[in-house]
Amino acid sequence: MMQPRHVFLSQPVSKFLLSVMLCALGFASYAANSDVDWQTLQPNNTNVSLIVADPSGKRLIDHNSQQLQLPASTLKLFTAVAATKVLGPDFVFSTGLYYQGQREGTKLNGNLLLKFDGDPRLTSEQLGRLMAEVPKAGITEVSGDVILLADDDSPKWGAGWLWDDLGVCFAAPVGKLILDRNCVKGSVTSIQPKGKEATQVSAQIYPSRVHLSYPLTIDNSASYQPTAPSALCKLHLGHAQGNRYQLTGCYQMKDPLPLQVAIVDPAAYIQAQIKQQIGNTFQLAGDIKVAPASIEHATLISQFPSMPLQLLLTEMLAKSDNLIADAVLKRMGQQLFQHNGFEYGAQALKQTLSGLGVDMTDANIIDGSGLSRYNQVNAEQLFSVLLLLQRDDELKWLIKALPLSGYNGTLKFKRGFVNPQLRGKIRAKTGSMTGVDNLAGYIQIGEDDTAKLYPFVLLETGLPANQYHPATLAPPLLKQLIKQFTKPSAIAAAATSKAKNQPKLAPPSSAANQSQQ
Fold it and tell me: Signal peptide location in the record (predicted)?
């Protein structure tokens, strides 16, 4: 069993002295050694927090850095750092198959126990391989049940997750029972008349048909209306008890329209998958059910480990994967507090970052993904984490795990980031939701290991929700900054500054030290 990773902390610095320093530096809003008049680039009526620094961490622009904002998926930077420290890069989730009872030849007089561990990447194919180990262990007949063990009664959705997102895969339920990302993919296709019937249709309103990779129950009354006013044509996916859904409203953008449905009852989905996988593999007299049981006196048949945490976090940062983020957050809570709930994971995250010198006093952390509208952080906290990645050898790998503009992850095709001026020059974590467009990472000047990294945080809220692609500050601002940083004088200054200075963080909190130990 993997042991917890402990973070040892030093003495606190006076908050009064720190506040005096902040006031003296004018952290509310200032620009030093920067020729970029960024405020002329800011879209109207948006609210911006912005920090830009040179490679040593010296600030060139600082505006509203203490103001609390919605982080969206930039919160995953916090999750990645805390998880690396608490769980370690080699940590794995482990799904185990056990038997309990007495064996008589090839018959088991007892139950099979399938212990789920919250592996966010466990697939039906992997589960099938695990069940195939039963006859390999010499068991061809089971007199009892297949019992699914989850030991998790915490909420599967975070506080502040929007109710109309809960049937969609990016807000899939998070618990110990996860299979196939708790997501079923498919499409919606219109049923359009052909031949003579097509000429008799006066209005372009067509019924639709749902196609899914797994047969969930969907009551579908949605229609395809390509000429309807966009403001009046919305598709709605609701869910009732069990894995039963209602698809209503209309759509017009694509036909067929891709559909991703969250499995709101993972237990029912897993039961159906196991029933199908058992097939003729072995005979089961009992049921497949979720029930309390202990593996204390059970015998292990086989187990399936997840990919190591480092690979999971790399995927989480690149694809902004919410399920991985929240599964990891919950596991941090279990590791430090022996509870698997969101609130315990959030406390583990705050405690760990505080212990590393990041002032999390005013932060409100609800989940690890950034989905919750109740999350609040400021640019200062994100900037501190960026400096931490540069100075801590255990965390430096996370920099290259960040999406690279025009090449991979959420920056591969992001609007405004595929042009030659930005391509390959931004390594950053994106964070977007309705009205919000955030970016936290580095401007990369140079190639690979010799590149100069200019840390920056840009949190932008108040974007118009009724526009599909509202204008944002990030692309024009970053173009201007790159232009400034690639001047010969700026390159020479960056090299000199980096030689003289190293990124520094405030000393860690002793209060966090006491609770961690």
Answer: 1-31
Helices (H) and strands (E) in the chain, counts: 14, 20
Q: What is the pLDDT of residue 25?
A: 40
Q: Name the packing angle between helices 322-337 and 309-319 (round to 10°).
A: 140
How is residue 209 written in tokens?
Answer: 């048909």
- Calculate the alpha carbon distances from 291 to 124, 156, 316, 448 in Å: 21, 18, 31, 52
Q: Which secondary-structure segment (H or E) carries 217?
A: strand 217-220
Q: For the chain, what is the mean pLDDT?
A: 87
Least confident residue range of 14-18, 92-96, 435-439, 459-463: 14-18
* C-alpha span between 203 and 225 (Å, rounded): 9
Show the tokens assigned to 480: 């201007």
Higher per-residue pLDDT: 192 or 265: 265
Q: Report, as residue numbers or ranges, the catalytic residues.
A: 73, 76, 320
Q: Per residue in 140-189, pLDDT tens?
A: 999 999 999 988 889 999 999 998 898 899 999 999 999 999 999 999 99
Q: Which residues pair with 331 in a beta bridge?
A: none
Which of left, alpha, beta for 409 (phi over 0: left; psi -120 to 50: alpha)?
Answer: left
Task: Output the pLDDT for position 382.
Answer: 98
Does pTM surpass 0.70? yes
Q: Provide the token pair at 313.
A: 């976090």
Nearest alpha-carbon partner for 82 in 388, 438, 390: 388
247, 236 contact by CB (below 8 A)? yes
Task: For the chain, report the end-to-end CA distance as a whole number of angstroms.
Answer: 20
Q: Strands 107-115 and 141-142: what pairing?
A: parallel
Q: How wide is the angle at C-alpha 394 spanned by C-alphas 70 and 49, nearest 5°? A: 20
Q: Is 338 left (phi over 0), alpha (psi -120 to 50) or beta?
A: left
The residue assigned the tokens 């130990």 is 517
